[in-house]
Write a structure and sequence with these properties.
The protein is α/β, with parallel strands linked by helices. The protein is built from 13 helices and 17 strands. The strands form four sheets. The chain has an eight-stranded parallel sheet with strand order 8-7-6-5-4-3-11-9. A five-stranded mixed sheet has the order 13-14-15-16-17, with helices on both faces. Strand 14, helix 12 and strand 15 form a beta-alpha-beta unit. The radius of gyration is 25 Å and the shape is globular. This is 4-hydroxy-3-methylbut-2-en-1-yl diphosphate synthase (flavodoxin). Converts 2C-methyl-D-erythritol 2,4-cyclodiphosphate (ME-2,4cPP) into 1-hydroxy-2-methyl-2-(E)-butenyl 4-diphosphate.
Length: about 425
């Protein structure tokens, strides 16, 4: 029997081979594609003309871990504000590269506001929104020529809500001539993919280097996104930007984005991701960054911040102490990361367990770097703490949360302090 068994393996498929595109600001370089890790990016929702509000939101997104931040450049006021936003970020020591999102009038704005064109590190062009008829070709060419002039990479981002209607009509005509026509859904997929690839090829003909082009084909359906990117990935070598457009609000948006992107990432498809969440009124825009990071980290593709393992609770855990402690520790760890990632290399790999009773508590705590097993209902009011699989101490009393946080701080300082070479 043993000879018939093979080793059980896990992990994603080998990453799809792609070109590597660099997005640069000053000394900061973010590489998309090639053998670089998958990049997390986000987008502001402030009025770009409001320099201070936009700069503050960019700072918050960058602090949360967004490695690129996209801003809307939709009118002269927004374009004029971009250099001032970059200046404010420099004053705050925020070097995250900025991506300009252009629709309809990007050719005019980039031409009329050269300081904006220079301050941005990357342009996003939607080929369905660069112009109609004869103007489309010249206006697309103008934007690509400006990208060449300022040495900027470009994301050619196709969206099925704004697909080039002339191209779609062409694909539909071709389909009508088939002996067995495709479904309307397949025609739409083909139009998205063809638009992305043909516009990328046209950009290269206009002089933009192939390693300065990133592609995306955004849709709002999970199965649609998976189908489109599976096919797109086989037909080009450009790095791919993944994202479910109009994913939605709250748990729906998170679940839909996770379902779609996880399948593609597991198949080795995708070089940068953006989680397009609709914030609740007054909600935190940084949530989309955290979700993106957590998708990559829970899949084992990247590590951003120590992970907290916590049980869901049951009838044994009627106390809310373990829930509050897990939440406090998770918030604490994320808040510390901007400082820790500079002081303590490798700390993002740490696992912390906060468990609620004796059933799985000690076992899970032993598997973590540092873990605590809180007492469940009717259990002895004691909380054993395990460090690297060994019981180190037992906490009691009303200050368990504070004492455990201090233990975590001490562990990080000792375990992840850089080695000093004399």
């Amino acid at each position: 029997m043993e000879s018939l068994l093979s080793e059980i393996l896990s992990g994603p498929r080998q990453r799809r081979l792609s070109r590597a595109a660099s997005v640069v600001y000053g000394k900061r370089k973010v590489v998309i594609g090639g053998d670089a890790p998958v990049v997390v990016q986000s987008m502001t929702n402030t009025d770009t003309a409001d320099v201070i509000a936009t700069a503050i939101q960019i700072k918050d997104l960058a602090r949360a871990g967004s490695e690129l931040v996209r801003i809307t450049v939709n009118n002269p006021e927004a374009a004029a504000a971009v250099p001032a936003i970059r200046e404010q970020l420099d004053k705050m020591d925020v070097d995250v590269p900025l991506v300009g999102d252009f629709h309809y009038n990007g050719h005019t704005l980039l031409q009329d506001f050269p300081e904006c064109a220079q301050a941005l590190s990357k342009y996003r062009i939607n080929p369905g929104n660069v112009g109609q008829g004869a103007k489309r070709e010249s206006q697309f060419a103008q934007m690509i020529e400006l990208a060449c002039r300022y040495d900027k990479p470009v994301r050619i981002g196709v969206n099925w809500g704004s697909l080039d209607q002339t191209l779609l009509a062409r694909i539909m005509d071709e389909n009508a001539r088939r002996s067995v026509p495709w479904t309307a859904q397949s025609v739409m997929y083909e139009a998205l993919i063809t638009s992305a690839i043909e516009n990328a090829q046209r950009a290269e003909e206009l002089g933009l280097a192939g390693d300065k082009i990133i592609l995306s084909c955004k849709v709002s359906g999970v199965q649609d996104l998976i189908a489109v990117y599976r096919e797109l990935s086989t037909r080009c070598e450009y790095p791919l930007h993944l994202g479910l457009t109009e994913a939605g609000m709250g748990s729906k948006g998170i679940v839909a984005s996770t379902a779609a992107l996880s399948v593609l990432l597991q198949e080795g498809i995708g070089d940068t991701i953006r989680i397009s969440l609709t914030p609740e009124p007054g909600g935190d825009r940084c949530r989309e960054v955290i979700v993106g990071q957590e998708i990559l980290q829970t899949m084992g593709l990247r590590k951003f911040t120590p992970m907290v393992i916590a049980c869901p609770g049951c009838g044994r855990t009627t106390s809310t102490v373990f829930q509050e402690l897990a939440d406090d520790i998770q918030t604490f760890l994320r808040e510390q990361m901007p400082v820790w990632k500079k002081q303590y290399p490798g700390v993002e790999s740490m696992n912390v367990a906060v468990m609620g009773c004796i059933v799985n508590g000690p076992g899970e705590s032993k598997h973590a770097n540092i873990g605590i097993s809180l007492p469940g209902t009717g259990e002895s009011p004691a909380a054993p703490v395990f460090i690297d699989g060994v019981k180190a101490m037992t906490l009691r009393g009303d200050r368990i949360a504070e004492e455990f946080q201090a233990i975590v701080l001490n562990y990080v300082a000792k375990r992840y302090a850089p080695t000093v070479v004399e």
